[in-house]
Structures are given as structure tokens and as C-alpha cells.
Amino acid sequence: MSLGQSLIRVGTEAKVRGETRYGFDMPQAGDLHLACVRAPKAPAKILSIDPAPAMTIPGVVRVFTAKDVPGEHRLGIIAVTRDQEFMAPGWVRQPYQCVALVAAETLEAARAGARAVQVEYDNQPGVYSFEEAMAPDAPLVQPEHAGGNLLRENKIKQGDTEAALKDAAVVVEATYTTERVEHCALEVEGGRAWWEDGRVMVKACTQNPHYDQADLARFLGVEENQVRVIQAETGGGFGGKLDLSVQPFLALAAWHLKRPVCLRYSREESIRATGKRHGLWMHFISGADEQGNITALKARISGDTGAFASYGLAVNQRAAVHATGPYRTANVDVIARMAYTNNTFNGAMRGFGCPQVALAHEAQIDAIAAELGLDSFDLRKQNALRQGDHTSTGQLLRAGVGLSACLERIEPIYRRWQAELKHTDEYLEGVGVGAMFYGIGNTGASNPSTAQVQWMQNGRVTLFTGAADIGQGSDTALMQIAASRLGLPMERIDLCRGDTDKTTNAGATSASRQTYISGNAVMGAVANLEMQLLQGARDMLKERHLEVDLRGGVLRTADGREIEPAEVVRHLAKSGARVMGEGRFDPNFTALDPQTGQGRPYAAYAYAAQCARVRVDTASAMVKVTDVAAAHDVGRAVNPRSVQGQICGGVVMGVGMALMEEYEQGRTENLQAYHIPTAADAPNITPLIVEDPEPSGPYGAKGVGEPALIPTAPAIAGAVSQALGRPMRHLPISLERVMQALTAAEGETDCED
Amino acid sequence: MPLKFTLNGNQVSLEGVPGEATLLEVLRQRLDMLGAKEGCGVGECGACTVLLDGKAVDSCLTAAWQAAGREVTTVEGLAQGDELHPMQKGFADTGAVQCGFCTPGMILTALDLVEQAPEPSEQQIRRAMSGNLCRCTGYHDVVRGVRRGAKYLRGEGEEQ
Question: Is A48 exposed, middle or buried (0-12, 13-18, 19+ CB in 10 A)?
Fold first, then answer.
């Protein structure tokens, strides 16, 4: 059985050979190249667009503007906030929004053409922060939106928080902030489109091919089957390739010109034009009794979603739902608010608001421990969600609550590091802890996946899935699940993935959902396939009451006969039937009450605990994260090496979020200015897998993609706080912030807030 | 004058290569060698790494004409038919490959390293690989991959 084995991922050989073709590795001779004309400032009225100077450049074929969009201008991943205009129709809402698109015979001509297009703007007053957006009489970013500049307010109300805070033995209150973060997948967005048999074909990097198809059809004003989307091999996504990027431009040009076209963003264009992780402002007031049991949380969270909603609703809701962290909290009053501004839009990035709130809930528990003179690790164990507890949305956790097990796994490491701590004149050391829970899949909403498994006449089996593998390893995980459920070796399974002509909707590769949700769809497809094979065997043998089952990839009758399934498949083929099992899975959920936020938003939760050890150089203020131990309850590790790979990747992305990453418009717009961790910055990592099976998961599996990142930055912040002897509540913990803290410590002044 | 150099052991001769063309552009656009990737275009990410006379260089910052008369190795030149190069095998066997976009550059940088240090320490590996960015792996398995590849190159077998 391949489940639970660290098989080398499918596609690895092509990748090490350099043969894998990503979105922009496909241009062919004769392709037209595209280039976007982008607005320098927002908001602005577009007074005029003159393509004539561009058309004089040899090789320029056409300049498109909003007038050339045949369908709907406003697209977006969440249907109720479809508000992103890929070709600004008369009005620029965010900087670098595309106002015109140039198609040319060469890349050089396309870029020259884009520079030559004359656009006249009339700059307008805008809003550039949550506070400005919410001011009375603030200019509206999206006048069509019913709530003014307020995108959404999410509330979680449970118990009587004011009374509980009044009765608490200790109350801690602080403000935390995080900044915007760029996904920085190594592959920048790229793809190709062409015209074939009266349809538009788009092959590009993406995390969600079926969503792309639906929105591109809307953009072109055609039926969905007029657009075929094929996921190109995708070089990382982390949420940044959930929104459309190059696809609408490719589709529009191919639609009009009936010629193959290609487009690839430069790194600068990728950073400027695509979504970011939201920076959040978080004010937390927590109460606990004398024993350190958390009794109440009052939290106010606000964020700037930029000019387009993208996944803003999801981030806001998830931040609210996860604000307590993975700790029993009977009295909860959380209000999270998200506003539109004229900044570049923010959207999904690995964790949807949870990495941000984790900074706050982890620092709060450290603060409670400090106030009470208790051990902060013990306090985490004491308050950790367990089976039978309720979350802040009132959801009963019935099973698969592996947080205590995660804490137990890292505790000896944490204790040893604490015992080894050194402070010298040259450096200060500290150790910190981060814990988290994370709901798998979309919040309080249907998010089904579908899959098919077909047994071929030659005895091989093909798995059909719309789930985009973007490097995280879902291809291999889903094939392992199928192979194990069928009792076949992996070598007998073929994969057909991410093509809207050949596969059905699996939903987005987001919310750590593919192993759990698409894995369950695959389980269902195999069960359905099995039923067809058993029926087929009875039909073939003309024994209506034959007792038969599928074991080890072979049909076995109760009286000891063995039948190759392919024989049955060939038998059924004579009557024109194929043997293809269909599976569908939608997690069990209830929508959250809009007033109280109560409900069962997710069917399953992942849990994790990490600890980090840091060394702060007192002269340079450099922080080095030397070690991280990361324990993750994944339910069941379908491919342990893949799980460890996800954990290590998440940890290092967390190091970046904690110490160095901040998107500043106009400043950190390439990799010389926007720094992500290198091999030299990365800590030694001890990935630890905890398996507390989720009853509703395929073989007990949950997910790990986002959980891998969430506890890291809080653990590092806790470690630096310990090293410096003062709380570090603002990310990134930059050189400047550390230097300030060191200086303040010398001057014995009050803490930074 | 044609630009001539050795690419993965074969002589190439190209007419009309402009002075400002980068080696990356020539490899990808003229020679259809797509293993070298452009991740940033400014020499920060290392996805475009190739070997020039055995030394790892960012091909996005290297003028194509700098390769004149010299030997260029890209990832496509490593495997011998069905047989992967030991460093490719090291990366594959350790799970050092996730999305794979940075992998060709990583493997070539690792080859430059082990040429100088056949048995590199973890610190040597981390320092050598620090010009090749990866957003997926956290470098944990990349370090293991380089180690394993170096081991295979030394002929020390395939045990875990």
C-alpha cells in the first residue's frame, strides 16, 4: 500500500532534467507577445487613451482597451464581491491597474508599444489606509459596493465578555500589527492562449483552472464551454495565483486576433499588479483566572483590502474565527473589519489572516503567563483545545484534536533550548512558541471537489482531477490515495489533471483543502468504480447474486475465483459502457450567524505547535533564527516526506514574515529590495509529524500547507521578545525595530507600545 | 561574426546575436534551452544559473558574447540519456524538488560547489546555495539533496 510512504513525487524527474514547461516556457514561433499599459497612480479618471503612437511602431498589431471587453468587466473569485476590472473602464482604482494592452509580433515591439500608448489621467483624491477609508465623507473606492468603503464586518460573540473581563484575575491588552507580504513564488505569472475550433484555449499558471474558465467566459461574454483552461505546470503559488493574473489579457487578445499569444509578467510587474497578504491591525484584550485559564477575549481587527475585494471577505472572516487561537475561551467578542482603499489589492496568502492573528494570540498567552508568574508553555498545554471542547463559534470538536500531542512533541526541545540560553556582550538568545488551529477548506461555505477514476481496458487506471498541483504535491497525494484504495501499486495509475475539457471542478488549491476534500472525492470515485466493477462482473459471469469484492486490485469471488478488472472493463466496452467512477465531496458545515458568528464553519481542523530559537547580535541588531522545531497534526501523512517538505517550506516563509518581508509600494518592487529568506537565513528545522486521524478525512488525513507557516512568526516574535526582554508586537521585526528595542533597553525606558 | 561556444558538449554558432543580448535570452530564445528560468532578471534569484567553464553564473546578467569560445553547461546537459546525473538524482531522492522552478539553477550551483568541495559541510552548502532562492522547500531538503548528490558523485552508493 502506497499510503503513508515517502514516494518520490510524480514529475520530479522532468523537473531535475529541466524538462518541465511552466506557464511561459511555451512560446512558439509566430506567437504574438502582449504587454500591459499600467496606470501610475490611483485613483484617477482616464480622460483619453491614444493608441496611435503605439500603432506606428513596427510589429505592433493591436492596442486593446476596456472598449474591447465583450463581456463583463468586473471579475473576482468570490461571487458577491466581483469587482476587479482587468481593463480599467474609464476609472483607475489602484496603482498599476491595466488601462490598455498591446499585442505585437515581438516582445520588444509589445513593450515599446506599451510605452508609446498615450493616456491622459485626471488624478482624484483617494484613501490609502483603513482609517482614511472609514472617515466620514471619504471618497468611495468601489461606489457600486453597498457598504461604502467597508468591505465587511465579521463578529464572533459568545458568552459575556465584558463580565468575564471584569471578573478576570489578570487582563492583558496590547496592539499588534503586520505588514503586507508578497507571495514571491519563484515562477512569475505567465501563459499562452490560442484560438482553436472556434474556442479560446488558455494555458497558464493557476491555482484554480475551473474558476478561471468561468470568469474568462464571463469576461468574453460567452458560454463556459467556449473557453478551455489548461493549468500549466505552476512554479509555486501560495495564494498569489488564485486570482486571475495574465489569463484575461491572454484570452482577450486570442479572442479578438484569433492568433496564439503569450504573456509573462516581469518580477516587478508581478509584485506591483498581483495581490498581497493583508497587513492587519489587531487590538487584543485577554482575561484569565488565577490559575491561568483563559476566560475571555475581546479583539478588534482591521485591515485594508486595497481596491479590489479578491479574498478579502475570506481573510476577514477567518481572522475573526481564529482570533482566540487554539485555546478554550468561553467568552469571546471579536469584531473584524476590512475596508477598501486605493492601494494595490490584498488577497489570499497562505493562511488567510491566521498568520496575522497568531502573532496576537500567542503574544497574549505569553503576557498572561508573565503577569501571573506562570510558565507560558504549561499555560498553552493547560488551555489547549481538546476533544469535547467548543471553539469560539460554538463548534464541538468531536475528534482529531492533536494539539496537545503537538505540544508534547516539542516540549522536550523547548525545555532544552530554554536551559541552554545564553546572553553575552555580543549576543542575546531567546526561545519562543507558536501554536495554532486551522479550519480546512472554505469558511462556513460549500466548497466541493469532484474526481473520476477510470479503469482502462489495458488494465491501467486513470485518475481525473481538477485540483491544481502548484508544487505542493497534490498530484502524488491524490494518486497515493487512489492507489491505496484500489489496492494497486502507484505505477498502475495515470493522472489527468487541471484541464477543463477533461476534468471536473475540484475547487481552488487553497485553504489547505486538496488532500482532505479532493482526497475524499477520489475515495468516493474509487468506491463508485468498485461498484461498477462488481456489477460488471456479475453481468459478465451471468451470476446475478455473485458475491465478489475488489481486493489487491483483483476481483475475488466468495468461491475463490479471481477476475482481472480489465476483463470486466472489456466486457462492458462491448455494450459501449466505460468503467469510470465518479466522486464528489463537500465538507459538512453550517454558515456562520451574521450577528454572532456562531456555527460550524469547517468539518476538520489541523493543529500545530512550533518553537523557535533566536540569537540577536547586540552590535548589528541582526536576528538569526538558529533552530525551529515544528510539530503538525496532519491526521494522517499520506506522503511523510511531502508533509515534511511543506512544514520546512512554511517555516522559512514564516521566518521571512517575521523578520524581513514588507511590501512597500514604490519601494520594494523587485527582489533586490524585497528580500525573502535564503539558504543562509534558514534555520535548522526539525519537522515532526503528529497523526491524530480525522474521522471524515481520507485515511484520516487533513491538510498542512498553511498550518506549516502559521505558528512560525509568533514563535520567532516570542523568542526575540525573550532575548530583548520586551515584547515585539509588530512585524516584520526589522533591524530598525530591534535596534530601537536594544536602545530602549539600554536607556531603561518603557516598552515600545 | 557568429557567436560560437560549446553548449553541453556541442559546438553552436549563432548569427546576428546583438551585443546587449544576455546568455539567458540566447539560450531560451535562440537555442530552445528552457531549463534556465528567469525569476527576477536582476541576478537575485539564481533561477537562470548555468555553468560557464564550470563556474556557476547568473545567465540573466551574463552577456551572451562573454560565452564566446567557452563552455556552457545547462541542466539539459547533465543526464546521460536515461541515466540522471548524480546531483539530479541526489535532489530527486531527497525530496528537494517541490514546484521545481528553482531546481535547474540549484543543481548547477551545487555542481560548482562540489567541484571545489567534494564533501561540503552544511555551512558550505548553505553559503553556496544562498544565491539561489526557493520559496517552497525552506532549503532543508535542498541541503540534503546537495549532500546526497555529492555522495553519489563520490561513488558512495545509494544508502539512505
Answer: exposed
Q: Give A54: exposed, middle or buried? Use CB within 10 Å, 0-12, 13-18, 19+.
A: buried
The three cell numbers locating residue A311: 479574498
Alpha carbon distance, N-terminus to C-terminus of chain B? 52
> Do residues A27 and A107 touch, judged by C-beta distance below 8 A?
no
Give the DSSP H/E element, type plus range, for residue B122. helix B122-129
Residue of A8, A266, A685 lying closest to B41 (CB–CB): A266
Q: What is the DSSP string of A632-691?
A: EE-SS-SSHHHHHHHHHHHHHHHHHHHHT----TTTS-STTTS----TTTPPEEEEEEE-
Q: Does B40 touch chain A (CB under 8 A)?
A: yes
Q: Kindly report the CA angle at A619 between A618 and A622, in degrees rounded to 5? A: 70
Contact residues for B16 (Cβ-Cβ < 8 A; gap 6+):
none
Could you tell me which residues are beta bridge partners of residue A690? A633
What CATH number is given for B3-77 in this structure? 3.10.20.30
Instruction: State yes or no: cis peptide before A732, omega within 30 of 0.
Output: yes
Task: Tell whether B45 is within 8 A of chain A (Cβ).
Answer: yes
Cβ pair B99:A6 closer than 8 A: no
CB-CB under 8 Å, B40 with A670:
yes
Q: Which residues numbered 216-255 in A keep a CB inside 8 Å of some CB on B?
A: 233-236, 238
Residue A141 belongs to a domain: no
**Cβ of B35 and A18 within 8 Å?**
yes
Instruction: Provide the residue range defining the domain that includes A41.
Output: 12-124+189-264
Q: Are residues A597 and A653 in the same domain?
A: yes
Contact call for B139 and A652, based on CB within 8 A: yes
**Most B-contacting residue of A6, A7, A8, A15 (CB-CB within 10 A), to test interface:** A15
Whether residue A45 lies within 8 A of chain B, CB to CB, comes out as no
> Within the 8-27 window of chain A, which residues sit less than 8 Å (CB to CB) from chain B?
8-9, 11-22, 25
A730 & A637 share domain:
yes
Q: Evaluate whether the domain defined by B86-153 bears CATH number 1.10.150.120.
A: yes
Q: Give residues with Cβ within 8 angstroms of B151, minimum separation 6.
A: B90, B157
Which residues lie below 8 Å from residue A115, measured CB to CB, with a gap of 6+?
A: none
Hey, is the C-beta of A188 within 8 angstroms of any chain B C-beta?
A: yes
Mean pLDDT, 10 residues at a time, chain A of 753 residues:
94 98 90 98 98 98 98 96 96 98 97 98 98 98 96 98 98 98 98 98 98 98 98 98 98 98 97 97 98 98 98 98 98 98 98 98 98 98 98 97 98 98 96 98 97 98 98 98 97 98 98 97 98 97 94 94 97 96 98 98 98 98 98 98 98 98 96 97 98 98 97 98 97 98 77 45
Q: Number of folded domains in chain A?
A: 3
**Facing residue for B126 by CB, picked from A9, A235, A680:** A680
Please report, for residues A41, A302, A305, the alpha-carbon distance to residue A346 in angstroms, rounded to integers and kept in the order given: 17, 13, 5
Identify which of A13, A17, A645 has the shortest CB distance to residue B98. Answer: A645
Distances (CA, A) of A713 to A176, A365, A613: 13, 15, 12
| Amino acid letter for position A430 | G
Residue-wise DSSP of A232-289: PB----TTTTTS-SSHHHHHHHHHHH-S-EEEE--HHHHHHHS-EEPPEEEEEEEEE-
Q: A338 near A374, Cβ under 8 Å? A: no
Distance CA A96, CA A12 (A): 36
